[in-house]
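Morning!

This is the sequence you dropped in the shared folder:
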Amino acid sequence: MKQRMREVPYFSETNIDYDYFNHEELNLYEKLQELRNTLFKRKKDDCHLLNRDNVTGLWIFTDLSDDNNPQLIMRSTLERGSYERLLLIGEIFNIFNHDVVYDYYLDIINEEEKVAVEEVIGGRVRTIYDKERDG
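The structure's back. Tokens below.
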């Protein structure tokens, strides 16, 4: 599963159906661009948790949503369930409205969330940021 996640294509205007999701301010592609750009411009010593030291991977499901809010996969150095991780998820939500944030290791690699794993296997996931690939 790790190898499959390393090969997930990056999002682009042609492989994200932003009309499928109902966003008020920006279309989905622009929101993903803003999220990615925010990750790249923030440094570890910023007062924000949303940076490349805390988020080492972020993916979006192209078809899996609840009430038109996309679901994400996040790989993070912050402990799952910690207050800091909840704040981080809130920071992501301020840029990009989302529903569920799956944990990369527990839900995907350990295959705890079968529906999410099936979406990955089916190729219905796009990479927003992957530290292993982006450096």
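Headline: Residues 31 and 96 are 6 Å apart (CA to CA).

More detail when I'm at my desk.
O.
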